[in-house]
Design goal:
The structure is a single chain. The protein has about 300 residues and is an all-alpha fold. It has one domain. The protein has twelve helices and no strands. It has helices at about 1-35, 40-60, 70-95, 100-105, 110-120, 125-145, 155-180, 185-205, 220-245, 250, 260-270, 275-290. About 45% of the residues are buried.
């Protein structure tokens, strides 16, 4: 019992650190975009760096498990769902809708994952989780809505963001299955490595002609290193570890904390300002995420 409680606590610590890393990722990506780095190039470089560092590290420590032949398809699907499809849906969806609208759509991921896991893995749906998630979505809306309360709807952008939501759901199913056999470090390392070839055609078609204009300065290099080691590798490993300890349903709702971290990071460097609505939005998100983790005892009459 004590070991179980300890692992649960470590699972919560892991997911909180993962959300911090992913929250800061938007600031680092913004810096790279300002230095003329196109989207596919950013993802490609961070995957190459993450794979090179962690394959070397885990092999030296003899902790990198070899993929069994029967699991090739599952690892291929895992990498295809995320990072490949997810980043295409999210990053290109943001080109057609504003960030506030995108944040609300992405905040629906925990609900879609819960429904997907119910049909794919027969995982029960708890009303506490659904209620807490919906409350956190309301908090995200409060945190990201524009001052005039309006947002622009675009069908193409909405469909792309929907692709990201579905990709996250498919990823969750594959991740849950693979973590029954492989360690979080192994799953994340191979996931990043396998995803690299998916981006090569897009690099050659869309990005390579822009490479001469890339601004290789300290800001861009440090941002790429942080994205590779902390986000593409570190955060995914922490997320996978948390899924293993807490289940994917309890873990995925924590993604709604990401806008809070991004807001704080952006405010710290002068890109954002706090308002009363954003402050209350933060409290609502935290309350919703907290409630989603509870197991409410039903009264017997």
């Amino acid at each position: 019992m004590k070991n179980s409680t300890s692992r649960t606590g470590l699972g919560y610590i892991a997911i909180l650190f993962a959300m911090c890393f992913w929250g800061f990722s938007f600031v680092w990506i913004k810096q790279l975009l300002n230095n003329n780095f196109p989207v596919f190039t950013i993802v490609f470089i961070r995957l190459v760096l993450a794979s090179a560092v962690f394959i070397t590290l885990l092999k030296c420590q003899k902790k990198l498990q070899k993929i069994e032949r029967c699991d090739y398809k599952d690892f291929l699907l895992l990498a295809f769902y995320e990072p490949f499809l997810y980043f295409i849906g999210e990053d290109f969806g943001l080109k057609y809708v504003d960030a506030s609208f995108a944040a609300v759509i992405i905040a629906l991921i925990p609900i879609v994952i819960t429904i997907t896991m119910y049909f794919a893995e027969k995982t029960p749906i708890r009303w506490e989780f659904v209620t807490g998630t919906l409350v956190s979505v309301l908090g995200v809306l409060m945190l990201t809505v524009s001052p005039d309360g309006q947002t622009a709807f675009n069908l193409k952008g909405t469909l792309l963001l929907g692709l990201a939501v579905l990709a996250a759901s498919g990823y969750s199913v594959q991740l849950t299955r693979l973590l029954k056999k492989y360690s979080p470090a192994t799953v994340t390392t191979w996931q990043n490595f396998i995803a690299i070839p998916f981006y090569l055609p897009f690099i050659l078609i869309f990005d390579i002609h822009q490479w001469p204009a890339l601004n290789w300065n300290f800001s861009s290099i440090s941002s790429l290193v942080c994205l590779a080691l902390l986000c593409s590798a570190g955060a995914y490993m922490l997320y996978s570890y948390s899924v293993k300890q807490l289940t994917v349903n309890k873990t995925c709702v924590f993604t709604n904390l990401i806008p809070i971290v991004t807001l704080i990071a952006a405010a710290a460097i002068g890109q954002e300002t706090f308002t009363a609505t954003k402050f209350w939005g933060i409290l609502v998100i935290v309350a919703g995420v907290t409630f989603s983790q509870l197991r409410v005892t039903r009264l017997q009459v």
